[in-house]
Design a protein that fits this description.
This protein folds into 2 domains: 10-196, 3-Layer(aba) Sandwich (Rossmann fold), CATH 3.40.50; 223-327, Arc Repressor Mutant, subunit A (Orthogonal Bundle). The longest helix is centred in the last third of the chain and has 19 residues, at 265-283. The model is unreliable at 1-6, 212-219 and 324-335 (pLDDT under 50). Helix content is 42%, strand content 13%. It has helices at residues 22-34, 86-89, 95-106, 117-123, 139-145, 170-184, 186-196, 223-230, 239-245, 250-261, 265-283, 288-294, 300-311, 315-322, and strands at 10-15, 36-38, 41-42, 44-49, 54-55, 61-62, 76-79, 110-113, 131-133, 150-152, 157-159, 163-166. The chain is α/β, with parallel strands linked by helices. It is globular and about 70 Å long. It has a 6-stranded mixed sheet, sandwiched between helices. It has 14 helices and 12 strands.
């Protein structure tokens, strides 16, 4: 644990900018207020603040109870995501916001962001030369706006000591619980998670569940062969067979395939097999061995290795995350 704040509630200032993401704004008060010994003995005092009334991306206006002066005494300053405005469009923030953030950091406050709130910290210069996380969907724009930051768009959150940043939406819950766990131990974090009805632990290094569609191809190219291979994921499919189906030499096919998808045929085939295994884990009752066979990965051991390497979790953990019996396909586990 970093410090013991059990005697006096640790003050957290949630700094909201215009265009704030509604979910991100509500997460810190919910999680940190759930971290308590009793109803009258909370670990944290959370104060939402801004420079004035602000609009949210969820379609409502927010009038916080506190102004920027709340940052002056806060031990932690947390910036929720922003969906519109300077930080994510032109790399700017209001001067008074930048000044308040720099002053808080200079006096030793812990600085935290959720989702694109990291762009606010970056615009203030607080992330230069540091590793930070944010939502994968903003990777291109944010990395261009803030090239001095070592962005990690794959993980749920990054704890870099006095500055902590998270990916989008649900990852903000993970980061808040991580802070509770770091400050007051696992038992306090688990109690807060139970109150919020969320998983107690998703490690920061776990991959974000990122949508990565195959790029659309101009013209026929290798697209028909990709569709052909997708219908045969459970079968051995060799590079030579794929090239033969495309009526190309192996060399030409490999070059054309890489141009169209950004990866080699073998890399693409493995990715699609892992993606199919994920779908089977989400939507069926098939055992891990059966999932491995049907996705063409061969064995449960291979499935575990590839899933761990791809998204950082085991098949059982992945299935628990996405389990929803209402949408489960009626496939028998013995098939």
């Amino acid at each position: 644990m970093r410090k013991n704040w059990a005697m006096v509630p640790h003050q957290i200032a949630v700094l909201a900018l215009d265009g704030v993401v509604g979910y991100d704004l509500g997460t810190p008060p919910q999680v940190f207020h759930a971290a308590r010994k009793s109803d009258d003995d909370r670990f944290y005092d959370v104060r939402v603040c801004s420079a004035g009334p602000i609009h949210s991306t969820a379609g409502f206006t927010v009038i916080p109870d506190h102004g920027l002066e709340a940052l002056e005494d806060a031990g932690t300053v947390l910036v929720p995501g922003v969906g519109t405005g300077g930080p994510v469009t032109d790399g700017t923030i209001p001067p008074e916001i930048k000044e308040a953030l720099l002053a808080a950091a200079a006096r030793g406050a812990r600085i935290v962001s959720i989702c694109t709130g990291a762009s606010v910290l970056a615009a203030a210069g607080l992330l230069d030369g540091r590793t930070a996380a944010t939502h994968w969907a903003w990777a291109g724009r944010i990395s261009r706006l803030y090239p001095r930051v070592n962005w990690n768009f794959d993980v749920l959150f990054v704890d870099d000591g006095d500055i902590l940043t998270s990916a989008g939406v649900g990852a903000g819950v993970d980061l808040c619980l991580h802070i509770v766990r770091s400050d007051h131990g696992a038992e306090a974090a688990n109690r807060a998670a139970r109150r919020c009805v969320v998983p107690a632990v998703r490690e920061g290094g776990q991959a974000q569940y990122i949508e990565r569609p195959v790029p659309a191809s101009a013209g026929a190219g290798t697209a028909p062969t990709r569709a052909w291979a997708l219908d045969r994921l459970a079968e051995p499919v060799s590079l030579e067979e794929m090239a033969g189906h495309a009526r190309m030499s192996v060399r030409t096919f490999t070059r054309r395939f890489r141009e169209e998808t950004g990866m080699s045929p073998r890399q693409w085939l493995l990715r699609e097999r892992v993606a199919h295994a994920q779908l089977l884990l989400e939507s069926t009752d098939l055992g891990v061995d059966a999932v491995a066979r049907r996705s063409g990965l061969g064995s449960a051991t291979a499935l575990r290795q590839h899933l761990q390497a791809t998204i950082g979790v085991a098949p059982s953990a992945y299935r628990r995350t996405f389990r929803n019996s209402a949408f489960r396909h009626p496939v028998q586990s013995g098939s």
